[in-house]
């Protein structure tokens, strides 16, 4: 449970000589009733864990696809509580580690400690908050420590050594290496600066490094998996769900995409 | 509580407000900007150049106009700080020139901006033309419709105007989209944020560039300072520009937020008056949000006040009592336009008309006191919108 489950996942995949595949999916897509089935399909297709997004009105770090997904999930009634109920169901049904992704405001609004307590109770193992840089994440990290959850900190191609050291000192459960400048979304070419970035992170800390932002195809995932301990793919999967004609089509499209990505990180 | 008026603390906080809630990709740029601005602002050469451009290009100091007919009509002595007479028609140019000068000093060849009413977009497009920078302006599609004149002005000035279709298609969405552009382009682009909002150092920097308004008032009025100073507040840059130099001098400072169709309808932009603390666009401040912490849409007839947040230093001024914040409805603001037009021959921007309308509404309480209104912008951009509501 919690942070330890993430550590043992990385220990296992490092021993297997492969990277972790963590698909991102917004909670409540294509609708709150079908959402669990999507996660079950991804688990069956080889996902190692999940980043579950709590849909938010102002996702600053997200590109058009995840924005649209968030809008649709909110319209379909996916409140933070509904999203956390889904987290509990995903953990129970798949047994895989889950990271909850949201933005600073909903956490502060609820109260940092209460939010972390509720996430821990739902069975989440860690928290990802893209607008809480290391300077502002202290209260979240202390609350997460109390409840045994991990906190993810980001490092970007623009981050210098001092910032990477500050991130390492904050003891994240893994470092999220931002593969591309920009917000989330698919790109034809991606990850050109990832090798150098991961090298700079590894020079400072041996905490696992997971690459994300702009990684969408199996070949991009394979390239990232050669340097990082894990890969996060989001927009490419959310787009498939948004474009599918029916919930069944969404499930099967997603399973195929995740199977291809899972093969690529091995 | 000790009141601190100088710089925000090292975390960019004004009391509990402000800070830097930004994606990691932007953090190094925010650090770089803070250092660059601090160095520039203490460099006499930068200050001299800024001040010369304000004089010879923007036309500063802007006049202080004794509004005699309006005063007679209301039975209250009213003075107007004529920011509407600044080049491009609003106070926004002060900040755009300051940040343009800084972008050039930092070697950034491209600037981006968000705009609501279009005044900040026009100001940034103007500064970009002046300094020879590429310029992209993000504007909500609803605002593009209701401020069509300013869209044309930006395009004539050589800027690219990008329509933002997410959310309600207004100022909040334009800020978000500009920030998303900046996350991608931060290495060669400076984000000219248009108000005292955003992650540190923006609220501090924009306030410093706008302080010229209040500093001029001190020079123009000498020992004979007003009793009350009124300014409209969306993000709050014109208000902070006039409030900050006049704070703690025994003057009543009043910020006017948009009450839209009425506070009780829920369709308004009164972030301080009806909002709660949270985080929006990179800083801790008051905002309009639902019980789940999701940001609510604001509403105002004036695109510049149609914003669900407010500058963090205003949140601090509110909390410490340095200023107080009230609100005025769409209908009252429209009456404010006609009132100022008929009495003084000045058509104010719908934003600025909120401040005029507050004086008109509160005239009995203000009797015997001298009231200074920051007339932040002119109304040319709004005539079509006003015409629809007459």
Tell me about the largest β-sheet of chain B. 6 strands, mixed
Secondary-structure class of chain A: alpha/beta
- Which class of the largest domain in chain B in CATH terms? Alpha Beta
**Count of helix runs of chain B:** 17
Radius of gyration of chain A: 17 Å
Beta-strand segment tally of chain A: 8
Distance between the termini of chain A: 25 Å
The neighbouring-strand order within the major sheet of chain B is 3-4-14-9-10-13
Question: Which structural class is indicated by helix and strand composition of chain B?
Answer: alpha/beta
CATH class membership of chain A: Alpha Beta
Strand order of the largest sheet of chain A: 1-2-3-4-5-6-7-8
Query: Number of helical runs of chain A?
Result: 12
Mean pLDDT of chain B: 96
Number of folding domains of chain B?
Answer: 2
Count of extended strands of chain B: 14
Residues in β-strands, percent of chain B:
15-25%
Rg over CA atoms of chain B: 19 Å
Instruction: Give the integer mean of the pLDDT values of chain A.
Output: 97
The greatest interface here is: A-B, 39 and 35 residues
Shape of chain A: globular
CATH topology of the largest domain in chain B, by name, is Rossmann fold
């Amino acid at each position: 449970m919690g942070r330890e489950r993430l550590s043992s996942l990385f220990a296992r995949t490092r021993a297997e000589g492969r990277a972790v595949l963590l698909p991102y999916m917004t909670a409540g897509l294509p609708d709150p009733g079908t959402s669990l089935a999507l996660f079950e399909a991804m688990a069956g297709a080889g996902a190692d864990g999940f980043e579950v997004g709590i849909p938010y009105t102002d996702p600053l770090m997200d590109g058009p696809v995840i924005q649209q997904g968030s809008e649709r999930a909110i319209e379909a009634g996916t409140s933070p509580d509904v999203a956390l109920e889904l987290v509990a169901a995903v953990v129970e049904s798949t047994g895989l580690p889950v990271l909850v992704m949201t933005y600073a405001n909903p956490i502060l609004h609820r109260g940092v400690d209460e939010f972390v307590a509720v996430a821990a109770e739902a069975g989440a193992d860690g928290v990802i908050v893209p607008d809480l840089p290391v300077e502002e994440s202290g209260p979240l990290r202390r609350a997460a420590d109390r409840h045994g959850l991990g906190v993810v900190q980001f490092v970007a191609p623009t981050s210098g050594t001092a910032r990477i050291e500050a991130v390492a000192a904050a003891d994240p459960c893994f470092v999220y290496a931002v593969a591309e400048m920009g917000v989330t979304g698919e790109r034809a070419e991606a990850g050109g600066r990832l090798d150098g970035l991961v090298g700079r992170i590894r020079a400072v800390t041996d905490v696992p490094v997971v690459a994300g932002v702009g990684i969408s195809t199996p070949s991009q995932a394979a390239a990232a998996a050669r340097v990082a301990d894990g890969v996060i793919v989001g927009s490419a999967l959310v787009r498939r769900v948004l474009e599918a004609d029916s919930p069944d089509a969404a499930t099967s499209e997603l399973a195929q995409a995740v199977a291809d990505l899972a093969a690529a990180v091995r | 509580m000790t009141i601190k008026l100088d710089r925000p603390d090292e975390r960019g906080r004004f009391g509990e407000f402000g800070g830097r809630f930004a994606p990691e990709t932007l953090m190094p740029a925010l650090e770089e900007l803070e250092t660059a601005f601090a160095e520039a602002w203490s460099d006499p050469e930068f200050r001299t150049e800024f001040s010369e451009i304000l004089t010879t290009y923007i036309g500063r100091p802007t006049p202080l106009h004794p509004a005699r007919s309006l005063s007679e009509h209301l039975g209250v002595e009213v003075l107007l700080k004529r920011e509407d007479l600044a080049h491009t028609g609003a106070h926004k140019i002060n900040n755009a020139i300051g940040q343009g000068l800084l972008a050039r000093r930092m070697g950034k060849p491209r600037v981006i901006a968000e705009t609501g009413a279009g005044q900040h977009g026009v100001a940034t497009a103007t500064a970009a033309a002046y300094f020879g920078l590429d310029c992209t302006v993000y504007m909500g599609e609803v605002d593009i419709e209701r401020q069509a004149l300013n869209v044309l002005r930006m395009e004539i000035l050589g800027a690219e105007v990008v329509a933002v279709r997410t959310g309600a298609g207004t100022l909040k969405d334009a800020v978000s989209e500009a920030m998303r552009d900046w996350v991608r382009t931060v290495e060669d682009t400076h984000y000219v944020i248009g108000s005292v909002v955003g992650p540190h150092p923006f609220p501090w920097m924009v306030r410093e560039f706008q302080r010229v308004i209040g500093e001029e008032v001190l020079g123009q009025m000498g020992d004979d300072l007003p009793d009350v100073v009124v300014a409209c507040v969306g993000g709050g840059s014109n208000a902070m520009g006039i409030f900050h130099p006049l704070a703690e001098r025994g003057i009543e400072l009043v910020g006017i937020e948009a009450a839209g169709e009425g506070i009780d309808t829920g369709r308004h932009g009164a972030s301080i008056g009806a909002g709660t603390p949270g985080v929006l666009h990179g800083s801790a401040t008051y905002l309009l949000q639902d019980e789940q912490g999701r940001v609510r849409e604001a509403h105002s007839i004036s695109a510049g006040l149609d914003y669900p947040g407010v500058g963090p230093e205003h949140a601090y001024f509110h909390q410490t009592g340095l200023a107080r914040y009230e609100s005025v409805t769409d209908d009252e603001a429209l009456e404010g336009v006609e009132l100022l037009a008929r009495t003084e021959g000045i058509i104010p921007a719908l934003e600025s008309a909120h401040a005029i309308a507050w004086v008109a509404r509160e005239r009995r309480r203000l009797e015997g006191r001298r009231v200074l209104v920051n007339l932040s912008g002119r109304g040319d951009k709004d005539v079509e919108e006003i015409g629809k509501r007459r």
